Amino acid sequence: MNITQATLADLKQIMRLYEQAKVFMAANGNGGQWAEGYPQRELIAAGIDQGKCYLCVDEYEIIATFYFAVEPEPTYKRIDAGQWLNEAPYGVLHRLAVHSDKRGIAGFCLNWCMAQCGNMRIDTHRNNLPMRRVLEKNGYQYCGIIYVRDGSERLAFQKLADSSV
User: Could you write out the three-class secondary structure of 15-57?
Assistant: First the structure.
């Protein structure tokens, strides 16, 4: 397996992977997180154009996709019911979607992101129990609650390079 930057030629396969992920999420009690057309094709295309949309590829098959960047996330400025582990520059991962027939891929993607910057912040929906388990298994610490642009809450997690897994 390897991680590579997505290109616009990959967009159709990426969107198919997101549709599959929505079905999985709904079947696991989290049908509301990616609703109303999210993530939009235009949003993913913009991430590709910015060089921030990545693919996990196994023998030429796209098995996961995600947004990754080392940049401040505006919605992370305010955190309630807790605090971030530090205020150092950090990487963010958004919109992780993994092929439903594959196992261990989310952890592989998280480890790749951590190797790029050594300080990661991630948020997820309260009902996204599979992602919460992946974060816990991979050494992410719950830090508090953040609010995304539409005002809905997300659980915020962080991991530092010296955190044990």
Answer: HHHHHHHHHHHHHCCCCCCCCCCCCCHHHHHHHHHCCCEEEEE
Q: CA 12 from chain center: how many Å?
A: 19
Instruction: Please state the pTM of the whole predicted model.
Output: 0.94
Question: Per CATH, the architecture of 2-160 is what?
Answer: 3-Layer(aba) Sandwich (3.40)
pLDDT in tens, 97-145: 999 888 899 999 999 999 999 999 999 999 999 999 999 999 999 999 9
* Segment 21-54, tens digit of pLDDT: 999 999 999 988 888 889 999 999 999 999 999 9
CA distance 82 to 62: 36
Name the helix (H) or strand (E) containing 116: helix 105-117
Q: Give the SS3 label for residue 124.
A: strand
CB 145 within 8 A of CB 82: yes
Q: How confident is the model at residue 164 (pLDDT cuts 50, 70, 90)?
A: low
| Domains of the chain, residue spans | 2-160
User: Residue 73 and residue 122: Cα distance in Å, rounded?
Assistant: 10
